[in-house]
Structure formats: structure tokens, C-alpha cells
Design a protein that fits this description.
CATH superfamily of chain C: Cytochrome c oxidase-like, subunit I domain
Strand content of chain B: under 5%
Largest sheet of chain B: none
Order of helices and strands of chain C: HHHHHHHHHHHHHHHHH
Helix content of chain B: over 70%
Oligomer: heterotrimer
Helix content of chain C: 55-70%
Chains: A mainly alpha (223), B mainly alpha (94), C mainly alpha (541)
Distance between the termini of chain B: 53 Å
Structural class of chain B: mainly alpha
Strand content of chain C: under 5%
CATH architecture of chain C: Up-down Bundle
Largest sheet of chain C: none
Number of strands of chain C: 0
Number of helices of chain B: 3
Structural class of chain C: mainly alpha
Number of domains of chain C: 1
Order of helices and strands of chain B: HHH
Chain lengths: 223, 94, 541
Amino acid sequence: MVSEPHVETLALREQFDTAAQQKDASSLGMWIFLVTEVMFFGGMFLAYTVYRNMYPAVFGAASRSLNATLGAINTAVLLCSSFTMVLAVRAGQLGRRKVVIIFLVLTLILGMVFLGVKAFEWNEKFQEHHVPGPAFHLEGTPQQGEAQLFFSLYFAMTGLHALHMVIGAGLLALLIYQTYKGRFSAAYYTPIDMIGLYWHFVDIVWIYLFPLLYLIDRHGVKP
Amino acid sequence: MTGHIDSVKTYTTVWIALLILTAVTTTVAYVDLGPLNVVVALTIAAVKMLLVTLFFMHVRHSTKLTKLVISGATLWLAILIVLTLADYISRGWL
Amino acid sequence: MITAAVEEQQNYLNAGYGLKSWLLTKDHKRIALLYLATITFFFFIGGVFATLIRIELLSPHGNLVSSDTYNKLFTMHGVVMIFFFLIPSIPATLGNFFLPMMIGARDLAFPKLNLLSWYLLVIGGLFAIFAMVAGGVDTGWTFYTPYSTTYSNTWVVATALGIFIAGFSSILTGLNFIVTVHRMRAPGMTWFRMPLFVWAHYATAIIQVLGTPVLAVTIVLVAAERLLHLGIFDPARGGDPVLFQHLFWFYSHPAVYIMILPAMGVLSELVSVFSRKRIFGYSVVAFSSVAIAVLGFLVWGHHLFVSGMSLYAGMVFSFLSYFVAIPSAIKVFNWTATLYKGSISYATPMLYAFGFIGLFTIGGLTGLFVACLGIDVHVTDTYFVVAHFHYIMVGGAIMAYLGGLHYWWPKMTGRMYPEGWAKLSALVIFVGFNLTFFPQFILGYLGMPRRYHVYPDEFQVLHVLSTAGASVLAVGYMLPIVYFAWSLRYGKLAGSNPWKATGLEWTTASPPPPHNFDQIPVVTHEAYDYSAVIDEEVPVG
């Protein structure tokens, strides 16, 4: 065989010619993956839009039963985690290994706080019988079925969002380990960059979920 | 995007702006603006999304192709929602 | 094995031996062969269901299987053929093998992801097979709610999970292709020098990436409704089953183009090579692929004409549906124009190409019938629709797939298939196909509904004809398996370019070396330039 397969490194896999080409490819691949995520959540946002237009009053009443303060706090927590994430990426660009680890750990902790608050909220729903199913009951509206529709969407959307958070947390843990092992440098930090993109995307989903689920009809027309 | 490093100050400013916007959207929700409540909430969400994508996700430094990919996603989401709503909105017309 | 060369060249097949060298390979060519084996397996499973359906329909009284079993048969035929055969068929085998080679790349951008895609298809397939063995599923491949969520007591969730996982396989393949086309082209390989096969796969990849996630979330919501009592499509709680249909067809209509666009890509290659002419209107054909991908997302509502969707939306969707006919017709016209004054040879791949053009035209034109709101109300859920989409998917996609497989077989294996047998099988498939599905147009127009196994006596003649055709078709599909296997050992050595074709894949050895090219080629001229290929003739090894 005449070909000279160049020595494979993390920054330059054998199918690429240059490290820049590989970085561009990873970045494009990640963005396309995020496009698929947009469409995935998009299906649920569509269902939400349709039903909210069909049953505005019930959706208002059901939304008011959510804890907006916790929702706002969680939004802030997630935005902070995006901030620490971007600082981790920045430290990665500069090749500061310890700083990367510190900010990744902070991001992971904030992610866990978010999930903890979320778990607390879900637990409340179980106690208040706000979980769709035979035992469902929401005070203040005769339309119990339609109220279940709201909570079905609430659980589907926040549930799949939380699942993405859990996956993100797993990826962060892996990144922390790899950074600790010294796999990244200023010349090669693509995984930190890519998982950063993922984390910010999950943040953006919540940026929409918060007002759409928690803040409908807060000014309280009539129950 | 290759090699462009933003300052910590830029990131901090964006972060604070995001927190302020969260406080604003939560507060405004308790004021009765009629149908404008939804508009305000979604506008603020869109601004927050733009801040995160442009600054935290470095889209303002990224290639045209990345911007095209993002526009494509937005357009397709719009197709999904608009054409489906075309059905729901016009159902009562006949 | 005796070879003409003094020393056997290293190629992707002899680069490693043993199960591990295949199951852990990152070589796109080996992964393509893994896919080839997998989808062939699923094709025959789907074929078994089809056979049982056709045998059952010999008699109008439904005396072979019970109604419940019949429901399961057509459901599993659809699920297997669509999600585990047609969706991966051309992109995952021929696309996987040749897309990197055609643009002069050593591999796809993400080889490990490519292998993962195959594993996902296999795992998804295992879930589907489990569901079949455990008792089957009877919702129809469309999983319409509320039947699939509330009433069916078959293995809906296992099947849905299988489709969900296989969907990821499709998404990752699409992602890989897009990045590869953007980032891995050889020096000089500009966008408008790419073979049309690559353009078609690029357009397909766009659909896979944008459409499949919507199916994924829809399936998740159906499963959540069955398992967790969520009620997003539950009419008892104010949910709207039609919303399910919107979400489902937002993917599943474009999915038709996932099946047919790569077939059109194959066709462009075949028509050009075997008439030895540049494709007429290259750039128009290239853009028509992208146009089909985009327009394909604007028409899904034509599946909902009689489902309770608003009449106004129906008119909009009907109108938009006609637009897809434009880029499709452009392709057919341009292939025909390419044939004009070409030096046409009638090798097996070209016979399949001719078959495709005729059958796709019939399938496409009857598509206009069913896109028309008024006519569709009459023929919805009849055999007319069944015949229409089989003309597209079997007469179109599978014909092109087989044509492409014959065309590239020498490159993939280094051996020629036996031309006489191959021609015979192409003929048998063409005859069998038409005998199977043409009577179904008539049946449908007379009012025979789909998914029924008991029918009025006067339809029996046409059903018997259709079943007779299906047996001919089955023979036609068996033949290639036999002679392809035979050719692996006894076929003539192919040489690097047996068709005197253009395209970078023909400039390297057959079978290709592990990294495709000994040296990354530099492209200096456009695709389908047959004056260049004579000069650059590679001596047959």
C-alpha cells in the first residue's frame, strides 16, 4: 500500500487532513445535532401551542397551580450554569487545566441543583394529585380532562428537558475526568466546546419552558 | 470562531443581563397587560435565547454555514407550527 | 484464490479477518456491507409478511388467518419494510460506500458515529423482532391514535421503541453525510463538480436530520400515553388525535423522499454512464433534489384530507402537493433528455434504470390523483393508494437500489455478476412488479379498501392476478441473492473501471484499498466528462 496514513492523534483523526478541518467538522456536526434537538422539542411546543389555544382558561388555571418562584429560581440557576460553562470553555481555549476543572465542577453542581429543585416540584405534584392518571384532581376548574392535558405536557416537556440535563451532567462528569487526565490543551479542547454548546442549548429550551408553563395568566383574571 | 477568545467582562455582562431579564419576565407576568402578556414573555425569551446563542455559543464569531444551519432549524420549526396551526385556526370557518 | 496481479493488493476486504475486524470496523465500506447484510435480512422478513398477505387475499372469505392476525401481518410488513429496509436502503449501503469515495475522501467525517448508526439499526431491529415474536403489533405502520394509545393490546411500545432507536440511526447517518459533504471534499471538488448521487444524498440527509426528530418525539408521546397515563392525544381528555397525524406525517411524508431521493441519485449515475453523456441540465437536477427536500415538508397534510382536518387547510395542502411534482418531473424529463442521442447500452443497471423511469412516472402521476382533494376523498384508504405508493417505493426505490447494486457490485467486490442471469432477473422483477401492483389500481378505483382481508367476490380475479404477480416478483428477488453470492467466487475480475465510468470511485482499485485512494485525488473537471475518462483509463489489473 502506497498511502501514508498519518499518525492518529486526538486533534487529528486519520480521515482528516488538518486539525482545523477536524474542528470545523465537529462544530458543524454538533450544530446539526442541535437542529435535530430543536425539531424534537419543537413537536412538543407545537402540541402546547395547539392545546393552549384550544383551552386557554384551563391552561391558565393549571399554570397558576405551579410554583412560579421555584421556576424563576431554577431559571436563574440554569443561567448561572451556562455562565460557568462558558468560562470553562474560555479556560479551555487558554489551556488552563485547573480553571477548566473548577468551572466544570461548578456547572455540574448548578445542574444538580436544578434537578434537585425539579425533583422537589414533581414530588409536590404527586402529593397534590396533579399527575395525569385516575387520581388526578385540580381545584378550581370543572374541566379535569383538559387540565390533565396541561399536566401531560408539563411532565413530557420538563421530563424530557430533565433527561437532557441528566445526560449533560453525565457528559460533564466525563469531561472533568478527561480534563483531570490531561487530555485537553489550548490546541485541542473540542469536546469541552461541543458539550458547552449542548449545555447552552438545554438552557435555551428552559428559557422558553419557564414563561410558557409557569407564567400564563399569572395576573389572575378569574379562576 | 477559531481562536477568538471573548473577555470575562463580556460574559459577565451577558450573564447579568440574562438574570435581569428573568426577573423582569417574572415580574411582568403579574401585571395585567391583556393579550400583550404572551407577547412580552415570548419577546423576552427570544432576547435571552439570542444572548445565549450569540455570546455563550459564540455564534457571532461563527461561520456563515453555522448561521445558515441555525436559520434552517428556525425556519423548519416555523413550518411545522404554522402549517399545523393553519388547520386548527381554520377549523371553525365552515 | 488466483488473481491476475502478481501479489494480491491490499484492499478493504483483506485488510483484516475475523468477526472483530468487522464488528469494530470504522471503515465506511465495511460498515456499508454490514448494512447490506442487515437490510437484506429485513427485506426478506418483510417479504414473508407480504407473501402471507398475498396468499390470504387469494380468497375473498379470509380463510387462511384470522382478522386479528391479518391486521398484524400488514402492520409488520409496513413497519419492517419502511423503517428497517427502505429508509436505510440506498443511503446506508450505496451512500455509505460511495459518498466518501465520490468526493475523494478517505472516510466519512465521523467513522465511529457511522458504526454506531449501524448498531442502532440492529438494536432497533431487535426490538421490532422481539415485538413480532412476542405476539406482533396491529395498529398499522402509522400508529394512529387513539387506537395505538388506548385500545390496542398488542406490542405497540416495543415496536415504537425499535422505530425510535432506528430513527437515531437514520439521523446520525444524515448528520454524517452533511458534514462529510461540507468538510471532506477533495481539492478541486467544488459543489458543481459533485456527482448527482452526492447531491441527492445531501438532500436526503437534510430530510433525515429535520424530519426524524419529530417522529421520535411523537413516538415518545405515544409510549408515554400507554405507559405513564399522559394524555396528549387522548380525546377523552380533550386531546386531539389529528394532532398525532400532523406530527406523524410531518416526518412520514418527507420520509418518502428519504426513500426516493437517493434512488434518483442512483438513476442520474446510471443514465449518464450507460448513455455516455453528461446529465442534461446538471445544475437543475442538482437543485431539484434540494427543492424536493424542501417542498416535501410543506405537503404532509394531504394524508389528512378525510381525518377531520379543516377543509381550508386541506385545500392549501392539496395545492402545495402539486408543487412537488415540478422538481420530480424535471428529473424525469432531464434523464429522458440525457438519453436523447446518447450511445445507449443495455447493461443490467440500465434495464433497472429504464424500469425506474417508467414505474416512477406511473407512481408519480397517480400521486397527483391522490394529492387532488376531490379525488382523494374517493380513493382514500383504497388499494389505489396502496398501488400508488408501491409504484414509488418498490417500482422506484427498490428498482434503483437493485440497479445501483449491480452497477457498483464490481467496485464493491472486485468481481462481475453474470450478465445473463442479471438481465433475466431484471426482466422478471419488472413483469412481476407490474402484475402485482397494476391490478391494485383497478381494485382501488372500484372501491376495494386497504387493510381488509374479506372482500366481495367480484374483486377476486384482480386479487388472484396480483398474487400471481407477487410470486413472480419473489422469484425475481431471489435470483440476485444467488448469483451475487456465486459471483463472489466465480465472477470475472472486474478491473478498476469496468463501465468506463467517470467519478472518483472508478479511479481506484476494485475492491478499493482501506483508505480508498493511494493518493488523495485532485479534481480538475466536472462530473460526467466522458472525454476525460478515455485518457485517464486505468489499466485493468
